[in-house]
């Protein structure tokens, strides 16, 4: 699918990324996928730059909780419909006070992705006035659930009781096998 | 005339799936609309972090109920990308067959689904019954009708059962004969024309701006298909066309579905011919299924689902469980942003048509 | 554009003449596909209760529940899976990972009930509908593609027979890290091995630690076992056992039902070999509260060293008396060096000594120091002198000096190899009598010496047992010996030693056919067919047909108070003899191998502790 | 809450018995796709299996529906609507728990967002095991339900009345409050 000119274009983009933006590092995942790690202050300029270069489709905006490093990694996945190349642009924000800036002026859909990330990780996006409205969850009363320190099983046990079976299934199985005599209920 | 607040769904005859749109209407025109997702939220992304790499195979098909295989494919391919595992050729071809069969099944499903809001029930009765024939193939192949759990990291779970190829050929022949009937009998039908033409019209610019992919985009004349643009599996080794339409309305979107089915049939035939014999899976790492570990890394994999770009971002910290999995539901942009900004102006009775033809699929938005 | 067509509806009309698509459920029963993932069946006779299905279950639907009155057997747990169909997602992973293949799925798919209790179910061979097994149609079954177990063992590097027979170098190489992790990844953590191990070592735990590459944790499991339960499962001789253990655990490994068992022994060796012994002490810290009491141990074999280790961790002052020049007993003087190099044993002993245990070598109790002296100087005595006397066939001619006992010869060979003694007599042709591991050890040692000295191997092994399977030696020992050029002829009983007519040297051994080794009661009572006989050439004959204990260290006054079973001392569970302060273990009590000796040492230490704490009470 | 073991004496009048006979032949199933099991309903209702042979059809509004099919897991957000809907349905009404999730949480047993046992919140007359159950199992369930109605055994709606306090208390325990907000947040 990729023509040779596009290949050159890709290399140009990668090298100009390094020249234009200080502190940006790139990593090759495979020939059509690159990861770009940006310092927070450079993220939005990089995204704008890439959009201009044809990486105009925002596939997803999401977040990763690196609890040991006390960081949230915000991930923007950009796709180029012309070349089929994906850029995974990421940046780290402080986990204790997670605030970043909205990109909804670049991609309107980001408004909902940001609401999603806020709901599940608690990252605030400045400039997105709706970002703190609940979206998927309703009347949520605990930690943002996709944070690593949230334990869903514990929450489930506390709020939604399990069934406590009374039946001695092994005894029933032994009757079925003919190991012991007895009657099966049902 | 005053504004009336209306809860459209989740329990509504026009709503497919457990989704809701809250809106203000004036007369029968929608003036404000807000999507209300989350009724099908199960917290997949969290649950996946709690399960072993292999155990997740049982969990993920449920993210998109009508087309589960794309989840398995994305997940498996992302892991293979991180672990740098080469999947045997036969497995790749089988995966393509599975994905295309799923595409056929889901196109038939949504083709049937449009019967509800338009009142054209024939399409529902025909298409859903024909979809069942595809499900019969899936049952033979994977042991279940709906949740196949067949594509696993490293390949597929089992080889094709004996004689299944003949049955697939038989099904393709049947569908090939059936699709023209759909076109003459349903697509050319007056009811469908009246109810779909010019309804829910969207232009290319809007689609690209908000990130609508798949049929929604292709119905505006842009031949963007991930299978062509960023080929995965062996889509670059088969011949097929990307059907497009130019009108960008509901009718254009619906009429593309039979055309895509024809292309899928073409692809499956090529797969069946080109498929070599050989192994169907390799191990990811060493050891038992309980102790699969994926090296540290991150990869994004997307496929072309019936509704557009469907993607998985898989992050591994080198452990026995995924560190983070993020799912990009194909209908996320149109289901949320699209509903809020594009729905106003539509008539109430066209809202289900809008949602259906744009392929708004609640489970993949909610996850 | 919509078409107004008179004929278009005809397409629909033609369906009138086709077979209806409707399946008339429930009048029409449709069978599910041959791969269908329906309700389970589980063959209880095949199932070993390993619980692997419960571990892979992504929905936590399977619970292993104990079955009352189930026959207890090694290699099997008395529990069976109970499936909660309120959880099950019918993914069939339990089927794909089942270690025995007992669990399968059927094509049954209908089950409705108003009572939720009905959905908890223990599948048996009769399935959900309580049908006879022959009437049940199986659905999803595992095949080689869907198998979730890794059936093939990771083999360490092993020197080829031609090369290893030229020296006494340890011929099984240690696992590399990659190999060890890969092998550890095969484990399913069922713990059946732990049940089987005489010392109940925490095998799944240390294997998992290897897999996580947390060797310190692994070492802790080896040397401390279950800390909360008095160090149950610890093994102070891990370097030794990692090489020469009889690995009963591997025989029962759940993986062995369909594949090769986990190489538990080599994984253990990997742990101890990967951490230098100087680091052991800082990794495995014992909090020892001195008890102010002294224990003497007679014999520094596995049981003695093990008892010393556990007693020392409990805070006792321990002295070991060893009559030979070096500690280790059978590990030092019996097992050949190509299987157990001195360095490995030295590591274990060094660690035991670092806990404050004193080992007095070259002191024979009863000769150099009277038993009574020990009795007076110590609060308790542990006797682990082992089997040191060889047995003779007592056939005509066996009193010739060139008819020798295996054990003394092995001892001489090991002393010679480490430079402690002169070269033993190495004959060009040797006949070994015996089918156990000692016979294999001496045969293979002699083969090496012959190869080194004369350039060729000429060792013949003959034994009563009629087949290789019947021989008590480990199968791999037999195979490796034969690879190295040792000829093994099972099924022959020695009749007499044949001499050259003209001189006083051995020509060979005459044997007669052995018809039966054991009588119908299972007792050793060989029967021979005298008409069928054969002759093996040899300049020297080695007898390796068993050993006997030597109780000469024990004065008659005490010996008479003890109870014996055969020639073994009878003790209680805590290895206490009829004399309260005298404990005994190892081959003189239980046998037959090192790991049993270690277990004896462990239980004796607990017994001694109990006894000594009891004596404090007024 | 089991109706086995303590078989009640049939307290119905003759007229009720006749009514139950008639009821069992004409049931409307509420058209509400609560979970993933709903994907097997269109095949059941259309030509392949043809549910209408049993006199069962989909009904848009709860006010006229008899059967409430809970198709699989219920997120708490849906459960609020389900309780609303269930209470809106006229007596007699029957609930079928469809699939493993309704019995004991299914594969979502550890989810923070889904309940584990349905009969803790609303009474359930019949369960179908499977994930998901095939159309044949749905038919088996409907046949069984019809039989239960004829025998007067499908009494979940009565239990809801009798134990209303218990159900309400459980609902509140898991949901906090059974209310429905709109997305405008006005």
Automatic annotation (TrEMBL), chain B:
Residues 119-283, 292-367 form the NADH-quinone oxidoreductase subunit D domain. PROSITE patterns: COMPLEX1_49K. InterPro entries: NADH_Q_OxRdtase_suD, NADH_UbQ_OxRdtase_49kDa_CS, NDH1_su_D/H, NiFe-Hase_large. The keyword Translocase applies. GO terms for molecular function: NAD binding; oxidoreductase activity, acting on NAD(P)H; quinone binding. Keywords: NAD, Oxidoreductase, Translocase, Transport. Belongs to the complex I 49 kDa subunit family. This is NADH-quinone oxidoreductase subunit D. PANTHER family: NADH DEHYDROGENASE [UBIQUINONE] IRON-SULFUR PROTEIN 2, MITOCHONDRIAL, NADH-UBIQUINONE OXIDOREDUCTASE 49 KDA SUBUNIT. It is an enzyme of class 1 (oxidoreductase). Its EC number is 1.6.5.11. It comes from Fervidobacterium thailandense.
From TrEMBL, chain C:
Residues 37-67, 79-108, 178-206 form the 4Fe-4S ferredoxin-type domain. Coiled coil: none annotated. One of its GO terms (molecular function) is metal ion binding. The keyword Iron-sulfur applies. InterPro entries: 4Fe4S_Fe-S-bd (IPR017896), 4Fe4S_Fe_S_CS (IPR017900), DPD_II (IPR028261), FAD/NAD-bd_sf (IPR036188), FAD/NAD-binding_dom (IPR023753), Helical_ferredxn (IPR009051). Keywords: Iron, Iron-sulfur, Metal-binding. Gene3D superfamilies: 3.30.70.20, Alpha-helical ferredoxin, FAD/NAD(P)-binding domain. This is 4Fe-4S dicluster domain-containing protein. It comes from Fervidobacterium thailandense.
């Amino acid at each position: 699918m990729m023509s040779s000119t596009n290949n050159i274009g890709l290399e140009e983009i990668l090298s100009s990324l390094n020249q234009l933006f200080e502190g940006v590092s790139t990593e090759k995942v495979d020939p059509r996928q690159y990861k770009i790690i940006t310092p927070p202050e450079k993220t939005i300029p990089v995204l704008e730059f890439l959009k201009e270069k044809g990486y105009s489709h925002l596939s997803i905006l999401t977040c990763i909780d690196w609890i040991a490093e006390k960081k949230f990694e915000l991930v923007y996945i950009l796709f180029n419909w012309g070349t089929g190349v994906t850029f995974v642009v990421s940046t780290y924000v402080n986990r204790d006070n997670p605030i970043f800036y909205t990109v909804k002026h670049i991609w309107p859909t980001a408004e909902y992705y940001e609401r999603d990330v806020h709901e599940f990780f608690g990252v605030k996006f400045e400039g997105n006035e709706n970002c703190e409205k609940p979206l998927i969850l309703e009347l949520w009363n605990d930690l943002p659930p996709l944070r690593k320190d949230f334990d869903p099983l514990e929450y489930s046990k506390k709020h939604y009781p399990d069934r406590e079976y009374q039946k001695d299934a092994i005894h029933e199985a032994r009757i079925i096998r003919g190991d012991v005599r007895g009657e099966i209920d049902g | 005339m005053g504004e009336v607040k209306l809860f459209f769904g989740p329990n509504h005859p026009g709503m497919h799936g457990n989704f809701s749109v809250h809106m203000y209407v004036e007369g029968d025109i929608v003036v404000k609309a807000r999507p209300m997702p989350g009724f099908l939220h199960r917290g997949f992304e969290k649950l996946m972090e709690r399960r072993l790499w292999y155990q997740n195979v049982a969990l993920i098909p449920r993210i998109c109920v009508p087309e589960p295989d794309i989840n398995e494919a994305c997940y498996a391919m992302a892991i293979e990308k991180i672990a740098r595992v080469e999947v045997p050729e036969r497995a790749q071809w089988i995966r393509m067959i599975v994905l295309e069969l799923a595409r056929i099944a889901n196109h038939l499903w949504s083709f049937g689904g449009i019967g509800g809001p338009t009142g054209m029930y024939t399409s529902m009765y025909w298409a859903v019954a024909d979809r069942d024939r595809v499900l019969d193939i899936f049952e033979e192949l994977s042991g279940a009708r709906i949740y196949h759990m067949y594509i696993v990291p490293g390949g597929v779970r089992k080889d094709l059962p004996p004689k299944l190829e003949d049955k697939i050929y038989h099904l393709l022949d049947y569908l090939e004969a059936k699709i023209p009937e759909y076109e003459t009998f349903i697509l050319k039908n007056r009811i469908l024309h009246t109810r779909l033409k010019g309804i829910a019209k969207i232009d290319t610019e809007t689609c690209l701006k908000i990130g609508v992919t798949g049929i929604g985009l292709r119905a505006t004349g842009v031949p963007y298909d991930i299978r062509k643009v960023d080929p995965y599996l062996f889509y670059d080794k088969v011949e097929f066309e990307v059907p497009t339409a130019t009108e960008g309305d509901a009718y254009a979107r619906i009429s593309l579905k039979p055309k895509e089915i024809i292309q899928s049939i073409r692809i499956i035939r090529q797969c069946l011919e080109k498929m070599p014999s050989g192994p169907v899976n390799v191990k990811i790492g060493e050891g038992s299924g309980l102790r699969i570990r994926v090296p540290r890394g991150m990869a994004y994999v997307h496929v072309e689902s019936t509704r557009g770009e469907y993607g998985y971002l898989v992050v591994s910290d080198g452990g026995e469980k995924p560190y983070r999995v993020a799912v990009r539901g194909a209908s996320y942009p149109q289901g949320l942003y699209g509903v809020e900004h594009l729905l106003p102006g539509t008539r109430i009775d066209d809202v289900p048509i809008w949602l259906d033809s744009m392929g708004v699929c609640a489970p993949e938005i909610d996850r | 554009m919509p078409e107004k067509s008179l004929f278009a509806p005809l397409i629909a009309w033609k369906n009138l003449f086709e077979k209806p698509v409707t399946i008339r459920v429930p009048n029409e029963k449709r069978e599910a596909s041959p791969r269908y993932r329906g309700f389970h069946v589980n063959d209880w006779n095949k199932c070993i209760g390993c619980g692997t299905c419960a571990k892979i279950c992504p929905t936590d639907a399977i619970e292993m529940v104990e079955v009352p009155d189930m026959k207890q057997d090694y290699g099997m747990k008395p529990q069976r899976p109970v499936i909660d169909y309120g959880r099950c997602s019918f993914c069939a992973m339990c089927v794909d990972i089942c270690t025995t293949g007992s669990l399968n799925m059927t094509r049954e798919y209908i089950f409705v009930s108003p009572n939720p209790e009905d959905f908890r179910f223990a599948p048996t061979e009769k399935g959900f509908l309580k049908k006879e097994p022959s009437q049940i149609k199986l659905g999803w079954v595992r095949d080689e593609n869907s198998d979730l177990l890794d059936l093939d063992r990771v083999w360490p590097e092993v020197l080829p027979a031609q090369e290893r027979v030229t020296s006494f170098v340890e011929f099984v190489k240690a696992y590399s890290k990659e190999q060890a992790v890969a092998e550890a990844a095969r484990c399913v953590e069922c713990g059946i091995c732990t049940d089987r191990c005489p010392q109940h070592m925490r095998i799944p735990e240390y294997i998992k630690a290897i897999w996580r590459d947390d060797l310190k944790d692994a070492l802790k499991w080896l040397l401390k076992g279950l800390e909360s339960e008095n160090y149950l499962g610890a093994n102070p001789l891990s370097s030794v056992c990692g090489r020469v253990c009889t690995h009963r655990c591997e025989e029962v490994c759940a993986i062995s039902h369909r594949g090769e068992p986990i190489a538990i022994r080599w994984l253990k060796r990997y742990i101890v070999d990967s951490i230098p012994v100087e680091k052991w002490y800082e990794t495995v810290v014992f909090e020892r509260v001195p008890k102010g009491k002294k224990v003497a141990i007679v014999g520094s074999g596995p049981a003695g060293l093990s008892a010393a280790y556990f007693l020392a961790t409990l805070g006792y002052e321990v002295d070991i008396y060893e009559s030979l020049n070096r500690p280790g007993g059978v590990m030092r003087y019996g097992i050949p060096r190509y299987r157990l190099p001195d360095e490995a044993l030295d590591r274990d002993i060094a660690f035991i000594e670092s806990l404050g245990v004193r080992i007095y070598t070259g002191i024979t109790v009863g000769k150099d120091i009277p038993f009574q002296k020990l009795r007076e100087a110590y609060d308790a005595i542990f006797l682990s002198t082992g089997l040191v006397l060889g047995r003779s066939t007592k056939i005509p001619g066996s009193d010739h000096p060139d008819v020798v006992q295996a054990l003394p010869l092995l001892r001489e060979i090991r002393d010679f190899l480490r430079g402690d003694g002169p070269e033993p007599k190495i004959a060009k042709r040797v006949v070994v009598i015996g089918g156990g591991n000692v016979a294999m050890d001496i045969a293979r040692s002699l083969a090496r010496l012959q190869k080194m000295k004369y350039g060729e191997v000429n060792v013949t092994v003959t034994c009563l047992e009629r087949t290789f399977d019947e021989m008590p030696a480990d199968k791999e020992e037999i195979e490796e010996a034969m690879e190295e050029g040792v000829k093994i002829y099972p099924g022959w009983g020695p009749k007499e030693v044949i001499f050259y007519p003209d001189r006083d040297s051995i020509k060979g051994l005459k044997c007669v056919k052995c018809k039966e080794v054991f009588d119908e009661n299972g007792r050793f009572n060989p029967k021979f067919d005298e008409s069928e006989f054969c002759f093996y050439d040899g300049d020297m004959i080695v007898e390796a047909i068993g050993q006997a204990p030597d109780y000469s260290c024990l004065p008659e006054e005490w010996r008479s108070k003890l109870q014996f079973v055969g020639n073994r001392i009878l003790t209680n569970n805590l290895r206490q003899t009829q004399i309260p302060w005298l404990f005994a273990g190892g081959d003189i009590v239980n046998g037959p191998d090192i790991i049993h000796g270690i277990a004896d040492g462990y239980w004796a230490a607990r017994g001694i502790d109990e006894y000594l704490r009891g004596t404090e009470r007024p | 809450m089991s109706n086995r073991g303590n078989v009640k004496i049939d307290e119905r009048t003759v007229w009720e018995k006749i009514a139950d006979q008639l009821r069992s032949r004409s049931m409307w199933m509420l058209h509400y796709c609560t979970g993933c099991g709903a994907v097997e309903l269109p095949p059941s209702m259309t030509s392949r299996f043809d549910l209408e042979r049993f006199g069962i059809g989909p009904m848009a509004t709860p006010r006229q529906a008899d059967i409430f099919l809970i198709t699989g897991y219920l997120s708490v957000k849906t459960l609020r609507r389900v309780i609303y809907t269930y209470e809106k349905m006229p007596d007699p009404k029957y609930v079928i728990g469809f699939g493993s999730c309704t019995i004991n949480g299914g594969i979502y047993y550890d989810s923070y967002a889904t309940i584990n046992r349905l009969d803790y919140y609303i009474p359930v007359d019949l369960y179908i095991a499977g994930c998901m159950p095939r159309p044949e199992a749905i038919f088996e369930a409907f046949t069984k339900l019809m039989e239960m109605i004829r025998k007067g055994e499908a009494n979940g709606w009565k239990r809801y009345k009798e134990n209303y306090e218990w159900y309400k208390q459980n609902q509140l325990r898991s949901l906090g409050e059974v209310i429905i907000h709109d997305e405008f947040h006005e």
